[in-house]
Amino acid sequence: MIQVGDKIPATTLMEYSEVEGNGCSIGPNPVETQAASAGKTIAVFGLPGAFTPTCSAKHVPGYVEAFDELKAAGVDEVWCLSVNDAFVMGAWARDQKTGEKVRMLADGSADFAKATGLTLDLTGKGMGLRSNRYSMLVRDGVVESLNIEAPGKFEVSDAATLLAQAKAL
């Protein structure tokens, strides 16, 4: 399992773009994790699924609301990772009104989740292999803080916890 001090894995996430620009076409665009995090401080949070109750009611809204404070604490970008396809993540971004605040990144085949060891098997609930709920502060591709939730919990991966850690670093 990934630990504080480790580099994030070199995987490709997908991001849905509704507007062409900055070298991105409309539709799904690849995001190479190591290149996209180079030279930046990223607040990353992972969750089991788009449009799921806790994720939609608490997790994503918390990061949208805390965005300005996270920026003031030195965070360059906020990434939301979920084992969904880019089209679902794009629809969820519209629903959650993430705008330019939270990048909704699809880990469609769970490559990032598997490479970090942060998987959650929800096969028994008809959801297959998913991402565990967690948050991490990543600076220049290296994990500086890591908060992993116990199954069914939402206590340490919230925006307030990661904001306090960003302020302390």
UniProtKB/TrEMBL annotation:
What's the protein name? Glutathione-dependent peroxiredoxin
Q: What does this protein do?
A: Thiol-specific peroxidase that catalyzes the reduction of hydrogen peroxide and organic hydroperoxides to water and alcohols, respectively. Plays a role in cell protection against oxidative stress by detoxifying peroxides.
Residue ranges constituting the Thioredoxin domain according to the UniProt record: 2-168
Q: What is its EC number?
A: 1.11.1.27
- Pfam families per the UniProt record, alphabetical: Redoxin
Q: What does the similarity note say?
A: Belongs to the peroxiredoxin family. Prx5 subfamily.
PROSITE patterns xrefs: THIOREDOXIN_2
Q: Which organism is it from?
A: Hydrogenophaga palleronii
Keywords from the named record = Antioxidant, Oxidoreductase, Peroxidase, Redox-active center
The reply to whether Oxidoreductase figures as a keyword in the UniProt entry is: yes
- InterPro entries in the cross-refs: PRX5-like, Redoxin, Thioredoxin-like_sf, Thioredoxin_domain
Reaction catalysed by this enzyme? a hydroperoxide + 2 glutathione = an alcohol + glutathione disulfide + H2O
Entry superkingdom = Bacteria
